[in-house]
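Researcher: Quick test of sequence recovery. Tokens follow.
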């Protein structure tokens, strides 16, 4: 799901700055284009599964596989409902047709056609809208905005999660090496010891 959201955000990055109606038009235009392309591909496809699943089935092995229960110790088989590389190896020993029996029906070409068989219609002109009287009389006020002390350019990039942030490494300001602070710098400690003057003997 995250990859889908990231793809949509990247595609609509410029359109998000448009007014609401223009933004909706941009979304509809993009969805119509995607549906038309995928509908045409699905109609011309002859393989039992979608192209991405077919490509993965042609791929490659160290796990315990149960083809009847459709499980594997690597857990990918149960999670994705698509044979992992270990299940592919096991199914290949039985026969190539066994590949398709191990795949979920939701990866089939028939389901792919069903997903894009509907049409998306564009939003009609605002002059053609039929708005009920009780809705047309409603006054919509703008939301209350908190006063901002400093004006900043609106953020367009998403906030990264904690797992995506690179780990910050400490860098010494004396030697320039990473992994320690200047107070614990080995080079600085040796230098201070060398710079110390020998203690003078106290006269008797």
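Model:
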């Amino acid at each position: 799901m995250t990859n889908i959201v990231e793809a949509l955000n990247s595609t609509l990055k410029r359109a998000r700055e448009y007014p609401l109606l223009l933004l909706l038009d941009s979304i509809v235009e993009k969805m119509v284009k995607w549906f038309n392309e995928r509908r045409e591909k699905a109609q011309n496809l002859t393989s039992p599964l979608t192209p991405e699943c077919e490509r993965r089935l042609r791929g490659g092995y160290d796990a315990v596989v149960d083809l009847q229960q459709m499980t594997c110790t690597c857990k990918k088989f149960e999670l994705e409902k698509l044979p992992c590389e270990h299940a592919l190896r096991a199914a290949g020993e039985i026969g190539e047709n066994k590949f398709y029996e191990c795949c979920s029906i939701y990866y089939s070409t028939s389901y792919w056609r069903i997903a894009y068989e509907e049409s998306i219609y564009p939003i009609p002109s605002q002059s053609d809208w039929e708005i009920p009287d009780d809705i047309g009389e409603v006054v919509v006020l703008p939301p209350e905005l908190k006063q901002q002390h400093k004006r900043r350019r609106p953020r367009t990039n998403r906030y990264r999660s904690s797992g995506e942030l690179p780990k910050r490494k400490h860098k010494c300001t004396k030697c320039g090496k990473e992994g320690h602070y200047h107070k614990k710098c080995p080079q600085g400690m040796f230098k201070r010891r060398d710079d110390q003057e020998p203690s003078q003997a106290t006269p008797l």
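The longest strand covers residues 65-66.
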